Amino acid sequence: MELRLPVCVLLLLCATKVSNGGRILVWYTEASHWINMKPVLETLVDRGHQVTVLVPSASLFMNSSEPSRFLYEPFDVSVSVKDIENIFEEVLHFSLYEMDDMNPFQIFIRFLDLMKNNIKVSFKYLDGVVKSETLMKKLKEGNYDLLYADPIYPGSDLIADILGIPLVFSLRFSIAHNVERMCGQLPAPPSFVPGAMSKLTDKMNFSERLGNVLFYALQDLMLEQFMWKEVDKYYSGVRGTPTSACKMMGNADIWLLRTYWDFDFPRPLLPNFKFVGGIHCRPAKPLPNEMEKFVQSSRDDGIVVFSLGSMVKNLTTEKANMIASGLAQIPQKVLWRYSGEKPQTLGSNTRIYDWIPQNDLLGG
Ligand SMILES: *[C@@H]1O[C@H](CO)[C@@H](O)[C@H](O)[C@H]1NC(C)=O
Ligand SMILES: *[C@@H]1O[C@H](CO)[C@@H](O)[C@H](O)[C@H]1NC(C)=O
Ligand SMILES: *[C@@H]1O[C@H](CO)[C@@H](O)[C@H](O)[C@H]1NC(C)=O
């Protein structure tokens, strides 16, 4: 009986020791994917975990010299920052300016071209990890407890397998939910779950449902031919045995989906798929004075925050004027993140900014 208290204390001490935090390895990523990931890593550090981020020598957004509370594990890749910029520029130009004037066949051909290029570069990044004996040795000796990855760049599942550690994915979606369905086994009945990027909704008539079925089938076929086969070949080469990359992704323990049930169409989920949309949001800080005045001047109409994302800073004069004249017609005050020349049709309700504190504007 008298032993009970000391045993309790001992157990408690053990528990605190165990909960002292894990060693988390973080897969490299890019642009908004990295912006989104950073606050999550900050929180992990707050909770006592040690966070180590893999950072390629060529990256637009990741910088291993930037001071931070997590550790960096930089590695060399055989592509330059300029190469990466060119690739992004090409993809953006295609989606912003070329796509509208193309027929579906032309879009398909161009898209394939961009995809092939993208995979080639992804493998060059992966080479930087897998083919570096020094880095692989370091990772093995790092005794990590978990790999945290956005699967936009392939290879995290391969490394988690080699290191023998659990894998947690964080993703927004893949085209036609291909990765979630084929690798994560997430059900997606085409009768009411519109394929991601199909532009359909969950209210479909017969022909739209048929279109949805075809959309899934075509995307699966295309990705199988032009992506999965390549990734399988790469993985098989590294492991020395025939390997299905999709199966390996299916080994992920948890899939964190960066959306929310009220932001997406209803669909069946699995217990290891969790909605974490807004996980990067933080309490709003006060706005700069000038911006605060502008926002308050909107009174009951409210404000509109307009941004084309982390990658699109400017547009052609024609597109910018078109957007500006559209924005000029709404009663709200508009804060537009735009670094191009001031459009002539800019309304008095709209202001353009090089950068906007999006979290503080929307959180306030
Ligand atoms: C990386 O961060 C360092 C330290 O903040 C800074 O001096 C350097 O300019 C940054 N490099 C790039 C490419 O942004
Ligand atoms: C189904 O909906 C589409 C889009 O609203 C419409 O164009 C089409 O005519 C509809 N088809 C049928 C058979 O109702
Ligand atoms: C946007 O800016 C980049 C870099 O300054 C430039 O190369 C590109 O041509 C610009 N695009 C447009 C549409 O003005």
UniProtKB/TrEMBL annotation:
<protein>
    <recommendedName>
        <fullName>UDP-glucuronosyltransferase</fullName>
    </recommendedName>
</protein>
<keyword id="KW-0328">Glycosyltransferase</keyword>
<comment type="similarity">
    <text>Belongs to the UDP-glycosyltransferase family.</text>
</comment>
<dbReference type="InterPro" id="IPR050271">
    <property type="entry name" value="UDP-glycosyltransferase"/>
</dbReference>
<dbReference type="Pfam" id="PF00201">
    <property type="entry name" value="UDPGT"/>
</dbReference>
<dbReference type="InterPro" id="IPR002213">
    <property type="entry name" value="UDP_glucos_trans"/>
</dbReference>
<keyword id="KW-0732">Signal</keyword>
<keyword id="KW-0808">Transferase</keyword>
<feature type="signal peptide">
    <location>
        <begin position="1"/>
        <end position="21"/>
    </location>
</feature>
